[in-house]
Amino acid sequence: MNLIADEIKTESRISRLRCIGCGAIADHADQDFRCPTCGDLFEVFYPGWTTSSGLKAAGLDVPALRKLWLERKSSFLPIDTSGVWRFREMLPALKLGQDPITLREGNTPLYELPKCAQAAGVDALLAKHQGMNPTASFKDTGMTTAASFARQEGFRWVACASTGNTSASMAAYAARGGMRSLVLIPEGKISWGKLSQSLDYGALTCQLRTDFDGCVKVLNEVVRRRPVYLLNSVNPYRLEGQKSAAIELLEQLGWQTPDHIIVPGGNLGNSSALGKALVEMKDLGLSARLPKLSVIQAEGANPLVRSLREQAGKNLVPVEADTLATAIRIGNPASWKKALRVVQVTGGAVEQVSEVEIASAKAEIGADGVGCEPASAVTLAGLKKLVKQGFVKPGESVVLILTGHLLKDPEFTLKFHRGDLFVGTPHEKAATVLVRQQRAPLVLDARVDAVLETLEKFDRAGSER
Ligand code: F0G
Hints:
Helix 6 (139-152) crosses helix 10 (236-242), helix 10 packs across helix 12 (269-284) and helix 12 crosses helix 14 (336-346). The protein is 42% helix and 12% strand. Helix 8 links the parallel strand 7 and strand 8 (204-208). The strands form 3 sheets. The chain has a 6-stranded mixed β-sheet with strand order 4-5-13-10-11-12, sandwiched between helices. A 4-stranded parallel β-sheet has the order 8-7-6-9, sandwiched between helices. The radius of gyration is 22 Å and the shape is globular. It has helices spanning 2-12, 52-57, 62-71, 78-81, 114-120, 139-152, 165-176, 192-200, 212-225, 236-242, 244-252, 269-284, 303-311, 336-346, 355-367, 374-388, 410-418, 448-464; strands at 16-19, 25-26, 42-45, 110-112, 126-129, 157-161, 180-186, 204-208, 228-230, 260-264, 292-298, 350-353, 398-402. The structure holds ligand F0G.
């Protein structure tokens, strides 16, 4: 069955690159993945595979494709057990004989968040937890594709600038694929959990005395001067893999499109990728309509919000980014045009949330027994705002994309519960509302009575809370 499907796929799914600025078509990009004519970004497209008639020409229809993807769930082949490559008809094909580098990424759960739904004022709320990937963030879904292309092209070195998750993921996939990896991260501004991952997976890790945007500038010059394969999200093969989260989501929903999908915005690659998948699935007839895709940024790292409000989305307004949600501490996002396009095509919103709103939302997601890293929590904080504004109606179906695992940034969580997250910051006064969510660990004598007294005290207090 798989062999037959693969034969169909290879002839129909030839992919090419198209510049989002000037529309130039290419089959190969330079090492910076920028269009040599206008300097804008490339996207992958499939000339024979864009409509339902393209599907038919390849010998498949919508039911056959959905069935094929489900059938692969009972296979033990690595390419089928990957929740990315299982959907390979919608991905660029590797050359015959090339295996993907896979850690069995994707396959992430869709959780109900009843307490968060109540807090946000919606009847029901779902979260697709991309933090349940092998290196605990959504980056793995794009890294499996882009790292596989790096190896296919014969690169010895891959590299990225990162706020921590891309570097962790890249280091793992490079190691699995027998390549060396170079990581550039801002010194002191990424969580220890993420830094330790890239060390463990054997990356050459450089902490630069700058921010993420400064790391990007340095890396762009490095890849111009050395044969190093760039694995930031300007690499369009990463975004192709990241599309799989949207495909898997619709499959999990029985191919019913939700009304809203809400995603955090940093360098804006992920929102671009999810939006691309949603549009492609609609064009192929896999889904009946488009959900509204909304992007939420931290107030301190809000270039997309400002670009829309101050420039009507015509130009990017770069900012000096600052937020405790370090994953999205980005002031000059590379994929802003792509993200804006999908927000506009789907009729979504762009919003910003404060540091205290992020911290509170993160604790609420934790209290539903799910948890996530701070950057992911902007989704719930943003949803609350969108409900208040009437953009999201209480009865509508909403899916939050949680991008990173709770354990990525334990320091944030510990400081939150100890009550010192915002001490000495401009948010200290606003943060007093967080007290009721804080659960600092208690230090007690090693006596049964001490534990029982505490238990009773909390039981009584709990019924009042
Ligand atoms: N959430 C998490 C946990 C992230 O790590 C990132 C980005 C985002 C959201 C934003 O996604 O950039 O595609 O808009 N992290 C990158 C990194 C920049 O280097 O790990 P985006």
